Amino acid sequence: MSVLAINGGTPIRTTGYPHIGTAAGRTFDELEMNNLREVMASGMLNRSGGKFVPQVEKKWAEHLGMKYCTASTSGTAAIHVAVGAINPEPGSEIITGPITDMGTVIPILAQNCIPVFGDLRRDNIGLDAEDVERRITERTRAIIPVHLCGNATDMDPIMALAEKYNLYVIEDCSQAYGTLYKGKHVGTIGHMGTFSLQQSKHITCGDGGLTVTNDDNLGSRAELFANKGWPNYGSGDRDYVMFGMCYRMTELQAAVLDAQIDKVDWVTARRAELGDMVCAAVKGLDGLEVPSISEGGRHTYWFLPLLVDQEKLGVSTSKLAQALSKEGAPCGAHYIGRPIFMYDLLREKKVYGTSNYPYCLQPAGQEVRYEAGECPATEKILDDMLQVSINEKMTDEDVADIIACFEKVWENLDELR
Ligand SMILES: Cc1ncc(COP(=O)(O)O)c(C=O)c1O
Hints:
alpha/beta, Aspartate Aminotransferase, domain 1, Aspartate Aminotransferase, domain 2, 7-stranded mixed sheet, 4-stranded antiparallel sheet, 14 helices, 13 strands, binds pyridoxal-5'-phosphate
């Protein structure tokens, strides 16, 4: 019986992984460089009059088989563009998931709406439609399912709710490039889909966002919202036809993105392959749950979340993560730590000065609650979550080492009890 590295034994692996460190994991080469040179030589860095932003919008729309794509400055902006496009009345409620980045929530507040959080399902860490339905009121206007970690939310029941209550669905696909739900790419199932191009995502241009839709009205409003309500990106007579922000992607971002889109298929396919290899190997380990993937679905592992039955194993998630890291697995625990509504910005409901706006728009006695216990399944998921990082540059040998780390720790759990 070997001694665990956390207790002074020899680790499975002492070398790092090719992708560790935010810059190292990115897949850039001459394609991006050549495009950037072309932009600089053209002298045009702005969307208006540029070549690359319209090109990436067309490319991404075609990639997903969608009619419209609006590029913007971040994943947060992409969601804001979508919320602005659906044009909710102030005080409308928008339901989303409590494990996400604040970038999902800020656009709701920025459009004077109330973020409401539905609990998550343990099997796919996506919104639980039954819990969402309990939170729908006559003020609910939209649902924003977050396809977390690269796995798909169960969309059929979400779309059924949207139909039943006449709601918009905006899919947050920031972490879900190449992710499939019953054979369909996420982002193409709801009324709108959004993507983040922030540095850590499957593909990146440093920061950036994409909003897609098949709806003519929403497509047109999305484009206007990203450009101050000014039609045609400033060509033709000056006019401002609706409220909007200045979220235009620059030609420099789009030059990088244009090359990145050409790589997205192999990046996501390789991540899916590597993550599936780890899951297949560790799913038999006692007290460890691997993600459930829909029939015809695909997980593209922005990271691999594994859930631990701490009670059964008699070991905490944090202790397991430490032991796995010491063995040489790229492993952490608890992701965002607590439901997003437990962070001060939301918990204190202080968004605009001391006004309590937009929460004061809710009828008395019906205010949304941001308190522990509101989403118990989510709290348990975060408490039980191990995160294993996956990157397209990893080799089969890297994955074999990760698996060996899990096997060794699980064979020696007694040392951690
Ligand atoms: C699920 C999710 N939604 C929204 C965002 C916001 O994206 P960005 O950081 O590009 O604004 C992120 C990025 O971190 C995310 O992971």
